[in-house]
Amino acid sequence: MPGPESSTITAIEPQVKRPERVSVFVDGEFALGVHAEVAAAAGLRVGQAVDVAELQALAQSEELRRARESALQFLGYRARSRAEIERKLRRKGFEPDVVQAALAGLTRGGLINDAEFSQSWVRARTGSRPYGPGRIAAELRQKGVDREVIDEALAPVDRDVELDLALAVGRRKVEQLRGEDPPAARRKLGSMLARRGFSWEVCARVLDILLRSPEE
Predict the structure, then answer these.
(1) For residue 119, what is the enclosing H or E element?
(2) pLDDT tens, 158-195?
């Protein structure tokens, strides 16, 4: 790195093994390597005067680009919550200020949106083999989503909807319990519904509907 006084960029050369990156030489010595996009955005050119602060800013821009690229790769598999992406970037060793800058940029670009993520998660988890709101809320909390956002995403799953979802799951389970004695069947069905996150009130209602005695 050059000293505190202004120095001069003497060469900008593509790297042999990673041609998408360039090596920047200052006063004839290697100063740092950055992605070609970062160099272009900064307007680097041979003969340009630079100081330490400018080179540090360039290095930070490169770190931010790397953090954003890492986050986009993570998002490429499926949608993620903001907290999931933050944890991922921190585990990769990015500094907190770089992580926050990357998250802010992705949020502005609409690539991170906890409300949309939560709504999508609720739709997926109330699909063909649904889970109850308790289980879904716990999963979203684990992903770092705020309680207010979770509550809003789960608002469409009112008690009537929850009952319908639990009945759909319960009917499949009842078929597997044919031949079981009634107390065992009630216990197994109730436990399964509770594990899937349905409220006790809804569980009890499903048991009453699906496991009525012959006299009823």
Answers:
(1) helix 114-125
(2) 999 999 999 999 999 988 888 788 889 999 999 999 99
